[in-house]
Amino acid sequence: MKWLFALSLILTTAFAMADAEKLNILTISKTAGFRHESIPNAIKAFSEMAQENNWSITFTEDSAYFNDNILDKVDVVVFLMTTQTIFNEAEKAAFQRYFRNGGRLLAVHSGGTDTEYEWPWYRELIGAEFIGHPPVCEVELIIEDCEHPSTRHFECDRIKWEDEIYSFDQNPREFVDVLISVDEESYDVDHNPWFPGVNLRMGDHPLTWVREFEGGKLFHTALGHTKEIYDHPDFRKHLSGAVEWLASEESLANNHQDNACQYAQHKREFVEEIALAKQHVTHTETD
After folding, report:
1. Does 3 have pLDDT greater than 70?
2. Do the beta carbons of residue 111 and residue 80 sit within 8 Å?
3. What backbone phi and psi angles, to 5 degrees, belong to 180?
4. What residues contact 178, with CB distance under 8 A and at least 6 apart?
5. CA torsion angle for 242, 243, 248, 252 (degrees, to 10)?
6. What's the half-sphere exposure (Cβ side, CA atoms, 13 Å) at 84?
7. pLDDT above 90 coverage of the chain, percent
8. Are 94 and 61 contacting, i.e. CB atoms less than 8 angstroms apart?
9. Integer Cα distance of 17 and 114 in angstroms
10. Mean pLDDT score across all residues of the chain
């Protein structure tokens, strides 16, 4: 037990020495299942983004970092392509306390829906569970919120994107604010060589979402499978924008109201267009 105490003391001291004026980020890439070959390049990308944005960032594969003393000094936690069960019960409890006390989590690719299947609280937080994916392919992403810090650089509502597209056991839209979804007509969603008997088709298919939950903030993105994507400027802006939003005090309450107003306006415009079209058809038929 002495070595555990010593390790805890060393880790706590390291975080105590962090620059208080910088955003402190703890990034874990521990895996107990599939391990992505892109993890080293993803770490490189986050390291470079940290330099550009004046973040203080710590990378680890050691879940012992997840204790009250360390997490108390962390602004944002990143689950960077973690998989399966990575925490013991004490570490789960510490992270849960951190999150409920205003913690912020960025879950990247498998770090959300393919991590901690046996932890009901985490499954509820994320909102969906990974069930499979086709091979990497080009798809058309639908940018549903063009004003969010993680999406505003796309400057359009649809973009071409090459990635591995996850499917989930349920649509999380009821519980979260969706930022990006995928058009299933833009790729072969039914191409399923690795997950026998699994229906990958979802119809409405969110990939990136945010939510406020039990006092904390979550940013989940299922994007980010390939090594090359972490060198892509647009994806780096997506991730740095996610951190920007998580670190801010911006609430989703205003976003809900704005999105509802925009939806209502679009619906009114659509109804008016249909009505005009029907009038045109009626006039044509009677002329």
Report:
1. no
2. yes
3. -140, 135
4. 144, 145, 172, 206, 208, 209
5. 30
6. 7
7. 78
8. no
9. 33
10. 87
Helix axis angle, 39-53 to 233-247, nearest 10°: 60
Q: Which residue has the tokens 């969706």?
A: 178
Q: Residue 192's Cα: distance from chain center in Å?
A: 23
Angle at alpha carbon of residue 212, lines to 251 and 63, rounded to 5°: 125
Percent of the chain with pLDDT over 70: 81
Within 10 angstroms of residue 187's Cβ, the number of other Cβ atoms is 18
Beta bridge partners of 217: 104, 212
Q: Are 119 and 82 in contact (CB under 8 A)?
A: no
Measured CA to CA, the distance from residue 182 to residue 113 in angstroms comes to 16
- Rounded to the nearest angstrom, the gap between the alpha carbon of residue 16 and the centroid of all alpha carbons in its chain is 28
| 91 closest CA partner among 64, 72, 73 | 64
C-alpha 220/C-alpha 232 separation (Å) is: 19
Residue 110 burial (CB < 10 Å; 0-12/13-18/19+)?
A: buried
Assigned token pair, 258: 């704005």
Q: What is the DSSP code (8-state) at residue 222? A: -
The Cα–Cα gap between 24 and 27 comes to: 10
Please tell me whether residue 260 adopts helix, strand or coil conformation: helix
Q: Containing H/E element for 10?
A: helix 2-16
Burial status of residue 60 (CB atoms within 10 A of its CB: 0-12, 13-18, 19 or more): middle
- C-alpha to C-alpha distance for 143 and 181, rounded to whole angstroms: 7
What mean pLDDT do residues 161-172 have?
A: 98
Determine the average pLDDT of the residues in 173-188: 98
Cα 128 to the center of its chain, rounded Å: 12
| CA dist., res. 287 & res. 284, Å (int) | 5
What is the average per-residue pLDDT within 258-263? 41
d(CA 73, CA 174): 33
Average pLDDT over residues 237-260: 78
